[in-house]
Design a protein that fits this description.
Elements lengths: L1 H17 L4 H25 L5 H21 L5 H21 L6 H11 L6 H10 L9 H26 L3 H21 L11 H12 L5 H21 L4 H15 L4
Amino acid sequence: MSYIASFAVVALGIAFGFFVGSIDSVIQWIVSALWGGYTAANVLKWYWWRFNGYGYFYGMLSGIAASMVIPLALPDVKALNAFPIILWISLVGCLLGTLLTDPEDDEVLNGFYRRVRPWGFWGPVLAKVQAEDPSFQPNPDFVRDMFNVVVGIAWQTSLVALPIYVVIRRYDLAMIAGAVVVATSVILKFVWYDHLSKRPVPAALTLGVWLGRWVKCPLRELSGHFVQRGFHSAVELAAKLQGSNSAMRLMGWSAMRARTSRR
């Protein structure tokens, strides 16, 4: 099935290429307009405790649908100018999908908050976690985290630019980009990587519980089979890495998947 899906994607891309008049126009919509279709959902899932899987699903659906309809309905609107329109449509979809459905279980929310300790509007969840464990404290490292974000943006941008400069033979700029990658990597080693949590986590058990919740989404019938196959390997890997930094990062990722689920 994976071979068939891969072949279908390649065939669709080739067919789509025959009808595209300009690569630049497509890139403009991908990086300017289409991003507005999933920005709201992917921001809210980190910063708002009430956000759930239905909000994520309908926010993404409405945003992507808007990015496909607006070029036809408003052909004179440039891709960059369409970004805020699509963003607001996606945000409305997120809010309606979330507020018209039930919130996540306390077990999922509390477990995610304990491990990730995200910034944002998590007051009700923090209160419940502290009621269970009075010694628990929220993340106190806001300044360091924001510094890491700035350094991480420079690191990722330079990492992307480096091979591009090499391909176009701008070796002077490639050397600068490489120097930035090295410098920011060293900084992140000391101010980010060395501070990753090393708390042990029952990885296999927790992933198994969250897997069962995550596949209960509006597209379960379509995607459930492939999701379970993909997570099966993740559960085995987490069991082997239990208690290590790698397991902790894997659990943080899987917890985020659980945040975008519907029980």
